[in-house]
Design goal:
By secondary structure, the chain is of the alpha/beta class. Helix content is 23%, strand content 31%. Strands 1, 2, 3, 4, 5, 6, 12 and 13 form an eight-stranded mixed sheet that branches. A five-stranded antiparallel sheet has the order 8-9-10-7-11, covered by helices on one side. β5 and β6 form a beta hairpin. α1 runs parallel beside α4, α1 packs parallel to α6 and α3 crosses α6. The two termini are 29 Å apart. Bound molecules: flavin-adenine dinucleotide. Flavin-adenine dinucleotide (FAD) binds next to α1, α2, β7 and α6.
Length: 305
């Protein structure tokens, strides 16, 4: 990547970062916007999520978030397989019929719109630190970028930058997607959640569609500034299979182990950290796809002033 100067550096290529980059690029025509992703686009929660679009009563702005997401999918012709499902009426544990989409396809599709709009997107470019010599400098192993603003859209991994004055609420999460045997399909609940009895630990499951089930578990922890490594919970499959024995022999399709952050100050979205030119955007828990997309619009408006 080398040495550069730009208006905005967005750190993180999930939905928050991509939506931020796209909206800032559109509202600041001609400005140089750079997005740096440690791995590949959608490598984090945005590419791994259940894809359930929820209007969550306890989450401020949730209705506006989902309305905006549907409009953006339509207007930008985003490829994400959005569809509405009928909930099964089989006496499952918690039934609902929320709209469902493929989160990785959505994320990649927003990335394509970013490239078309002129955003400079770099994968395999982990940001290691943010320095301040009067101007802001975003540093990686083989690059330095001078910029006017930084948006940290790295979700729970923001703690690694040591910019927060207090601990960030974080969950270490392991999840596995499995293919459902035809014989198991009628008895598997649509939506499943249970606290395991160990403090702060839980397991959950969600139907992705008729043939696939996503299940996982997590542990609430506090991220300290010296960093934490996510630990896969080796017990997660056994714990879930205790309640859903049909899944014990299901074929795994993918596994993810990582961190997600919770709401900060009771509400996600934005906060300036340490320096008024550095924004943290994120912290949406398990209802974050629509919130992440709309946060990008909101931060773009803030940067206009
Ligand atoms: C298992 C699971 C299921 C979920 N299910 C749902 C659901 O059904 N519905 C829903 O609405 N929400 C769901 N969510 C929540 C939703 O996925 C997230 O809230 C949302 O995707 C967060 O987007 P983000 O862009 O902020 O974070 P992420 O998608 O995690 O993006 C952060 C990016 O930052 C990158 N990064 C980290 N550190 C650095 C660095 N130093 N330098 C550069 N890049 C870096 C990461 O590689 C990652 O790509 C789920 C989350 C999980 C984990």
């Amino acid at each position: 990547v080398g040495r550069h100067h730009c208006f905005l550096v967005v750190v993180g290529g999930g939905l928050t970062g991509l939506s931020t980059a796209l909206h800032v690029q559109e509202s600041h025509s001609g400005a140089r916007v750079l997005l740096l992703e440690a791995g590949h686009i959608g490598a984090g929660a945005s590419g791994r999520a259940g894809g359930i679009i929820v209007n969550h009563a306890a989450v401020p702005g949730s209705q506006e978030d989902t309305d905006y997401l549907y409009r953006m999918i339509d207007e930008l012709d985003l490829d994400c397989g959005l569809r509405r499902l009928k909930a099964p009426s089989s006496g499952a544990l918690h039934e609902y019929a929320n709209p469902l989409l493929n989160p990785l396809r959505l994320t990649r599709s927003v990335a394509r719109r970013c490239l078309e709009a002129g955003v400079h997107v770099h994968e395999i470019s982990p940001v290691e630190s943010i320095a301040n010599d009067g101007g802001l400098i975003v540093c990686g192993r083989d690059y330095q970028v001078h910029c006017n603003f930084v948006v940290l859209a790295v979700d729970a991994y923001a703690h690694a930058f040591g910019l927060f004055s207090e601990e960030l609420q974080v969950t270490a999460e392991t999840c596995v997607a499995v293919r459902l045997h035809a014989s198991a399909r009628p008895s598997i609940p649509w939506n499943y959640y249970e606290e395991t009895g160990d403090a702060g630990k839980y397991v959950w499951g969600r139907r992705l569609d008729e043939r696939r089930f996503l299940f996982g578990g997590g542990e609430e922890i506090l991220a300290e500034s010296d960093g934490i490594e996510p630990r896969p919970d080796p017990e997660v499959i056994r714990k879930l299979a205790r309640h859903l024995p049909e899944l014990a022999s299901a074929v795994p399709l993918s596994l993810w182990n990582g961190l997600i952050s919770s709401f900060v100050d009771g509400e996600g979205r934005f906060r300036q950290v340490v320096d008024p030119r550095i924004w943290f955007v994120g912290g949406y828990d398990g209802y974050g796809l629509a919130a992440a997309v709309r946060a990008g619009v909101q931060i773009a408006k803030l940067l206009e002033h």
